Amino acid sequence: MITISTVYRLKNAPAQLRELFMMKIVTIMDTQSIQFNDWQRILFGNAPPIFLLEVLIRALFTYAVLLVVIRLLGKRMSGQLTITEMAVMLTLGAIISVPMQMPERGILHGVVMLFFVLAFQRGLTWFIFKSHRVEALTQGHMITLVKDGILQLHELAKVNMSREQLFAILRSEGIAHLGQVKRVYQEANGSFSIYRNEPSAPGYSILPQMDHQLQQEVQQPVEGNLHACRNCGNVSKGNVQEACSACGHLDWENAVQQK
Ligand SMILES: [Zn+2]
To answer: What count of other Cβ atoms lies within 10 Å of the Cβ of residue 69?
Structure first.
């Protein structure tokens, strides 16, 4: 219970104690204002219902400004994004949510921040254009995932990609075994570039294990005692008792080629 005498005594209390007491009052008020059947607050928040109309106007205005900013950022923002562009996109999203929905914040505040991000991205792009080091630092590197039909397992581990995930990407390009692949690069923006081996060499089959019918229809085991490593796809001739020269594993199956 807060009485006048409490307030009077508080006035003469040391500053620290006064602050502590005021915090306590604020906490009590906050706890009292949270009630589960308070549908007015749950549906409309603390703003009056008419604010919904204002949100609509705020959203339309912010959307228009956002369109202008994205347009000024360049065409690439609407295609495959680099990591800096992705960061800018997320920042734009975070900036616009506040002026769209908060009654106590003005829209201009958000507009200024949007244009600030635009200027920042433009500046960064200029730096990237000028310096290879800045480019490597901000854009990431391109990596080799498959080299001459052999999986580069340490690179796959670096990008947290499983062999099956990579096989799924290759299958979507119509590739049935690793002997058809010269190189697979993962570009800095996350996309994949695939160079085929023409004509293809014998390789490790990446067709689904359960689909024997497809395996028999499109490929056949290579003659001449050629084996493919089940771990990395390396193709070797001869003794299956020896470990793979590329990855050190001892797990072979027949290498295949197209029919
Ligand atoms: Zn191997």
So the answer is: 20
Domain 143-258 falls under CATH 3.40.1190.20 = no
Distance 79 CA to ligand 1 centre (A): 37
Query: How far, in Å, is the centroid of ligand 1 from the Cα of 202?
Result: 15
- Check whether 154 has a pLDDT greater than 90: yes
- In the chain, where the domains are located: 38-133, 143-258
Phi, psi of 62 (to 5 degrees): -65, -40
Q: How far is the CA of 177 from the centre of ligand 1 (A)?
A: 15
Nearest to 172 by CA among 208, 133, 130, 201: 208
Cα 107 to Cα 49: distance, rounded to the nearest angstrom: 19
pTM here is 0.65
* 131 has pLDDT over 80: yes
Percent above pLDDT 90 for the chain: 33
Q: How far apart are CA 231 and CA 150, in angstroms?
A: 9
Residue 23: per-residue pLDDT: 59
How far is residue 135's CA from residue 31's CA, in Å, rounded to a whole number?
51
β-partners of residue 150 are 147
Residues across the chain: 259
* Per-residue pLDDT tens digits for 61-72: 888 988 888 888
Q: How far, in Å, CA of 7 to CA of 219, rounded?
A: 89
Does 183 score more than 70 pLDDT?
yes
Helix-helix angle 83-101:107-130, to 10 degrees: 170
